[in-house]
Amino acid sequence: LAAGKHVLQGKDALKFLRTRHGVGDGSDLSRISNQQVFLTSLVRKVKSAGVLGNPIYLYSLASAAARNMKLSESLTDVNVMVAMAGALQDVELDKMVFLQVPSRGGLPAPYSGRVAPIYEKANIIFEKLRNDEPLVLAEANAGQGAVIAESPTPSASPDPSASPNPSALPEGILGTTADTKTCSN
Asked: Scanning 135, 139, 146, 163, which has the fewest C-beta atoms within 10 Å of its C-beta?
C-alpha cells in the first residue's frame, strides 16, 4: 500500500491481516500489530455507524462470522454472538483493550524461531482476567509494524506529581485501546 489512508475490504483486508513481510521484523508477532490496527478501526467503525444498536446489522454480521470462521461450539449460535455484540454497545472505546501476550524469542533448538510467553508479565494479565479486573495500559504501544497515528485526548491534564496508575499493567506489555488510532508502517 502507498502511504496514506486506505479503506480495505474483502481480499485486500484479508491480505493486510495476513501480511508479515515488510511489516516490522517480518514475524508473526509484527503481524499482530496489523491485526490490532484493523480491530481498533473495526470497533470504532461499528460503534460509530450504530451497528451495535441495529439488530438487522448484528444478525447479518454474526451470520457472516459463523459462515466464515471456525468458532468454538458456544459461539456457533448466532444469538449468542448478537448478545455479546449488543453488550459492547455501552462500553467506551478507551475501555476496549487489545493486548499481545508478552513473549520472547531466541529459544534453543528444537524451538528455534518460536516464541515463549514471559510468564512473569503474562500471568499478571491472566490474573486480572480471572479476577474480572480492568486491563489498563500505562500507554498505548501497538508493537512492531504499527505506529500511533493519533492518541486519544486525555480528559484532564495529568498531574506531574501524581504517582502512576497502580492498576496499570507493567511497562513492556504491548497493546492499545480502541480509541487510539494507529496505522501500519
From this structure: 163
pTM of the model: 0.75
Map residue 175 onto helix, strand or coil.
strand
Task: Return the H-helix or E-strand segment holding 146.
Answer: strand 146-150
Distance CA 65, CA 4 (A): 29
- C-alpha distances in Å from residue 42, one per residue of 46, 48, 51, 70: 6, 10, 11, 20
Closest CA to 123 of 173, 62, 83: 173
Show Cβ contacts of residue 104 under 8 Å, excluding neighbours closer than 6 positions.
115, 116, 118
Task: Choose among 148, 135, 174: nearest CA to 37.
Answer: 148
Distance CA 175, CA 117 (A): 15
- End-to-end C-alpha distance for the chain, whole angstroms: 10
User: Distances from the Cα of 131 to the Cαs of 84, 127, 136, in angstroms?
Assistant: 20, 6, 14
pLDDT for the residue numbered 160: 45
CA distance 111 to 2: 36
Nearest-CA neighbor of 46 among 32, 62, 31, 34?
A: 62
Q: What is the pLDDT of residue 138?
A: 81
Q: How many CA atoms lie within 13 A of 90 on its CB side?
A: 2
Q: Which three cell numbers stand for residue 92?
A: 467506551
